[in-house]
């Protein structure tokens, strides 16, 4: 299993912050697991997290990458990972990504990609790589140095001069038109268009079930890769917005400042190519925010 996910609710400077991420490893699981463990901690402890969140995200991505490379030994030098993350703070949804895991929102019924897949054949990415002294060539698909099929990633020590961990960042306003967010690794997007994924989630109100349905359908469509999918649903309610963490204390927390008349829910569903189901996470803490890790051993 080289895919990992993280969903957290944390208090930072008097505000409750939601953090969601999908991390797709290559060359082994170590890099993705490291990013899962450290990226959000590095972010929320950044001194400018609440005052300049986008800058803090960029710093946290690059710092995590630097620390990952320092921690590696000669056996892990080819390991790397993508990251697609979403931060909910106040009435802001801030999405950042490195690599080809993707974030898509449904706003007003329309599917909108809020991240860009980082591929070596994109003109700006290819130019950046070549300006740094690297090259892009076809080897089954377009690859950096004939090796790596993504142009940005954590880790990948041997290609680090060309394969950077600088995230692209996009901000969306959380309002009544924002319906849900899908974060998923490329195993899903290889067989789903953005519009198809949004249409399927629309059909199922429960985010856990919608995530499971996406993964199940991706398997039926022949996806050969591991699949990790996180669905975060924004539900219009008549009361202030609450979130509930899935930690053992199961505390209900008021968003400060409130995000309006919205309720948040999330769920994850995973296809893993392993017999190990130890990745199963605790069940939902409340109906307002479901955070469940489900291991599907298909494929």
Automatic annotation (TrEMBL):
PROSITE patterns per record: PPM_1, PPM_2
Q: Which domain of life is it from?
A: Eukaryota
- Does the entry feature the keyword Manganese, yes or no? yes
Record InterPro entries: PP2C, PP2C_BS, PPM-type-like_dom_sf, PPM-type_phosphatase-like_dom
Instruction: Give the region (Disordered) as residue ranges.
Output: 242-299
Q: Would the keyword Transcription be found if you checked this record's keyword annotation?
A: no
**Compositionally biased, Polar residues: which spans?**
264-277
What name does this protein carry? Answer: protein-serine/threonine phosphatase
The similarity comment for this entry is: Belongs to the PP2C family.
One GO MF term attached to the UniProt entry = metal ion binding
Query: Which EC number(s) are documented for this chain?
Result: 3.1.3.16
Q: Which UniProt keywords apply?
A: Hydrolase, Magnesium, Manganese, Metal-binding, Protein phosphatase
PPM-type phosphatase domain: from which residue to which, for each copy? 1-234
Reactions catalysed, semicolon-separated, are: O-phospho-L-seryl-[protein] + H2O = L-seryl-[protein] + phosphate; O-phospho-L-threonyl-[protein] + H2O = L-threonyl-[protein] + phosphate
Please list the cofactors this protein needs.
Mg(2+); Mn(2+)
- Identify the PANTHER family for this entry: PROTEIN PHOSPHATASE (PTHR47992)
